[in-house]
Amino acid sequence: GGTLGSAAARTGRYFGTAVSASKLSDSVYTGILSREFSMITAENEMKIDATEPSQNQFSYANADRIVNQATSQGARLRGHTLAWHQQQPGWMQGMEGTALRQAMLNHVTQVATHYRGKIYAWDVVNEAFEDGGSGARRNSNLQRTGNDWIEAAFTAARAADPGAKLCYNDYNTDDWTHAKTQAVYRMVQDFKARGVPIDCVGFQSHFNPNSPVPSNYQTTLQNFANLGVDVQITELDIEGSGTAQANNFRTVTSACLAVSRCTGITVWGIRDTDSWRASGTPLLFDGNGQKKAAYTATLEAL
Ligand code: XIL
Description:
single chain, alpha/beta, eight-stranded parallel β-barrel, 11 helices, 9 strands, globular, binds (3S,4R)-3-hydroxy-2-oxopiperidin-4-yl beta-D-xylopyranoside, Beta-xylanase
């Protein structure tokens, strides 16, 4: 019995969800949110385009609504995200070079300072590696400012909010044999060796038939944890339905529980109708807010 949050707390973990500020007036949504979840990630409201729509003009109203919801229900917050090639405001999209590097660092400093002391973990950098077999950094305006942009962002975030855990977050890094997984692993290993401030790695874990839960998922989480970082499942959703979907949620939850440094799981939305996936039913509650088999399997595995 119990709830996702209370079950996760029995082993010192959290269970979180992405939250959209525009849904906080929906009482079915907030009812499930406050009952079940002990960690909140703003689905879009802390992204660069939301918090700095004009250069050096910061906008926190929608994000702060989510912060207030977290406070009122006693949940913690994951900050998402300070530096990313997507959802950049127009003024940033066209920038390059030294001007962009300075603008990015200013953004990291200003936003992390605004939320100092309120964030459990920041996704400092999101999705910086390429898909496919190259293991290379993704070509982006941020990457073109120099290969050290990621460590510069982490160093700025540490200075601004020394109490927050600082994470690197990505997708398609769940399969240990994948070149992208290996490339992120080597970056984290290098950061730890050189004292770049990194505390955690987030695995988005958006799974579907083309990208299923890999059989070595727990191995991946454990191998990263063995580098001396915490790991979290940060944006979990799994396409499917019924028993097959429930079993996949059970597998993912059990993998986190088996890794002592896997400190929590966040699903990317509450009801299937809240999902960023336009079609499909990848979450734990149906469109009416009823618990699915995937919910029961997750709760049992916690
Ligand atoms: C998605 C949101 O869910 C959508 O509402 C938005 O339109 C696009 O971004 N990886 C991430 C998340 O790190 O920020 C993305 O969220 C999903 C993929």
